[in-house]
């Protein structure tokens, strides 16, 4: 039970920042994912008597990021079938996809396209693969920030 509540709360924050009107405000460095990892780490630390190691916080944040990518994929497949737009929830700003897509097409153009079909997977699956890595990275970053909130350092006069 201690792991479910922080994970669910982190995923809910990421989903809240993935909905269309709020997604426009989230175009600064995947802030919703960082905030979800931070919230999950803080809640996990509070359930453990205000103690949280940094490695555990990184794992919690990365787990929240990966879990949110899976939930976002599921919701996009579920709601995308009934909507004209196949991407309903998206925690990553669109310019990041365009940047990496153009960079990949430039590399393929330089190396020469040897595959008969450059589009082997649908767009939703490419987004999911990218979201797995991106959400894990930014979620772990949020978890590390959360762990820093629980670090108790001795006062300056006792350090000497």
Instruction: Categorize the overall geometry.
Output: globular
Give the number of domains: 1
Helix content: 55-70%
Percentage of residues in DSSP E strands: under 5%
State the separation between the terminal residues, measured CA to CA. 42 Å
Task: Give me the strand/helix succession.
Answer: HHHHHHH
Whole-number radius of gyration? Answer: 19 Å
Number of extended strands: 0
Helix/sheet category: mainly alpha
Q: Strand count, sense and closure of the main sheet? A: none
Low-confidence stretches: none
Average pLDDT reading = 77
Helix tally?
Answer: 7
How are the elements arranged and paired?
Layout: H1 4-16, H2 20-23, H3 31-47, H4 54-80, H5 94-111, H6 123-148, H7 156-159
Helix pairs in contact: 1-3, 1-4, 3-4, 3-6, 4-6
């Amino acid at each position: 039970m201690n792991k479910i509540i922080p994970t669910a709360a982190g995923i809910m924050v990421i989903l809240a920042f993935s909905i269309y009107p709020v997604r426009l405000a989230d175009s600064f460095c995947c802030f919703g994912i960082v905030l979800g990892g931070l919230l999950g780490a803080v809640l996990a630390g509070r359930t453990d008597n205000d103690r949280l190691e940094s490695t555990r916080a990184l794992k919690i944040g990365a787990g929240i990021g990966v879990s949110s990518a899976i939930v976002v994929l599921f919701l996009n497949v579920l709601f995308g079938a009934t909507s004209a737009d196949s991407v309903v929830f998206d925690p990553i700003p669109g310019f990041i996809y365009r940047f990496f897509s153009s960079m990949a097409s430039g590399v393929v153009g330089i190396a020469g396209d040897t595959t008969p079909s450059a589009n082997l997977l649908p767009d939703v699956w490419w987004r999911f693969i990218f979201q797995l890595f991106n959400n894990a990275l930014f979620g772990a970053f949020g978890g590390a920030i959360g762990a820093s909130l629980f670090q108790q350092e001795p006062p300056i006069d006792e350090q000497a």
